[in-house]
Amino acid sequence: MIYAQLFWSFLQIGLFSFGGGMAAMPLIQNQVVDLHGWLTLTEFTDLITISEMTPGPIAINAATFVGTQIAGFGGSLVSTLGSIVPSCIIVLSLAWLYSKYEEMVIIKGILAGLRPTVVALILSAGFSILVLAFWGPSGFTWNIASVDFIAVALFIGWLFLLLKFKLNPIFVILGSGVIGGVCYLLF
Amino acid sequence: MEKSPIRHFDLFKSTFFLSAFTFGGGYVIVPMMKKKFVDEVNWLEEEEMLNIAAIAQSSPGAMAVNASILVGWRLMGLSGALVAIIGTILPPFIILSVVSWFYASFRDNALVSAVLKGMMAGVCAVIFDVVITMGGRIVQAKKLLPILIMLGAFVAHYILRINIIYIIVFSGTLGTLITLHDKRTERENI
């Protein structure tokens, strides 16, 4: 039963994540954190952190990680399989269509509509992680004393450096881990 | 041009190493594949690789997986596609299996948890950098509809908590209708 659930969830992630890179992140959060509660938001954030530092697509990383945590090796296999099944079918059908009609107006239209949506969905997922980083698992409050100022300082500093110098994300995450780690252990 | 026969193991090796050394995923894999399959081993023409990239980007799912399915299929049909998929997903599968094995036992360690907490702020910065760069491009294009779609999708998901799949299906349909309308009226609304 759990295998079927994992397979079905990751199939939906594979089917609806357009645009590569982080596009799958909000869908993974939706299935794994919001709908099924397989991971807490903190565990999900750790997963994104690990995915950004290791090779491979975020959906495959998530399928392996969640599958293993929930149902061991078999779980990781069915989840990974689920996430690639839509790709196999759609990519090969599109390749066939592409060889017949070079200009695929409908596909272009779908992608044009999805591009701004994907940005908005990544932003939405980013906000929930930001709230977790700044306020912790209990969530947003107006009480200024509940704000984690180390996290705020790290976020602003790294974002500025990323925008200004186009740093490598792996370097940013490792650097943030070292500086943050030292600060949290000291204070 | 006479091409030497490609063995399944060669294809497996290439896709495995490409996947093992591509960090961050997504858009990075396509130029690396071109370098490997077009420039180094000469298995594909540049034109073919461009088509593969275009289809891989238009399909849902991980771009690296999409592109390797197409490369494998083009070179050796169904068995090639299977070999290429296995080569591509094996490195992240192995690495994340090892990570999840250690995760459960190390997550509560004081040092590990402090470092992961520090990394959380860094990951947020990376996510917001992606959003600002991608969103900035949409705003700079100065077309009203994409900007409205972006705002609408954010409100629908973050505030109204509407199911993410409905939002994706709706905006894909909307994009198609606007594109078809644009084509008929020779405008560029999207």
Written description of the protein model:
The complex is a heterodimer of chains A (187) and B (190). With 187 residues, chain A is an all-alpha fold. Chain A is built from 7 helices and no strands. In chain A, helix 1 runs antiparallel to helix 2, helix 1 crosses helix 4 and helix 2 crosses helix 4. Chain A is globular. The relative contact order of chain A is 0.11. Chain B has 190 residues and is mostly helical. Chain B has 2 domains: 99 residues, no CATH class; 67 residues, no CATH class. Chain B has 7 helices and no strands. The longest helix of chain B is centred in the middle third of the chain and has 44 residues. The mean pLDDT of chain B is 91. Chains A and B meet through helix 1, helix 2, helix 3, helix 4 and helix 5 of A and helix 3, helix 4, helix 5, helix 6 and helix 7 of B.
Secondary structure blueprint with pairings:
The complex is a heterodimer of chains A (187) and B (190).
Chain A: H1 2-16, H2 24-35, H3 41-53, H4 58-100, H5 105-135, H6 149-165, H7 169-186
Helix pairs in contact in A: 1-2, 1-4, 2-4, 3-4, 6-7
Chain B: H1 8-20, H2 29-40, H3 46-58, H4 63-106, H5 110-140, H6 144-159, H7 164-185
Main features:
heterodimer, A: mainly alpha, 2 domains, 7 helices, globular, B: mainly alpha, 79% helix, flat
Into how many domains do the coordinates of chain B divide? 2
| Average pLDDT, all residues of chain A | 93
Total strand segments of chain B: 0
Number of domains of chain A: 2
Q: What is the number of E strands of chain A?
A: 0
Shape, principal axes of CA atoms of chain B: flat
- Main beta sheet of chain A: none
- Distance separating the two termini of chain A: 46 Å
Order of helices and strands of chain A: HHHHHHH
Oligomeric state: heterodimer
**Which regions of chain B have little confidence, pLDDT < 50, spanning 5+ residues?**
none
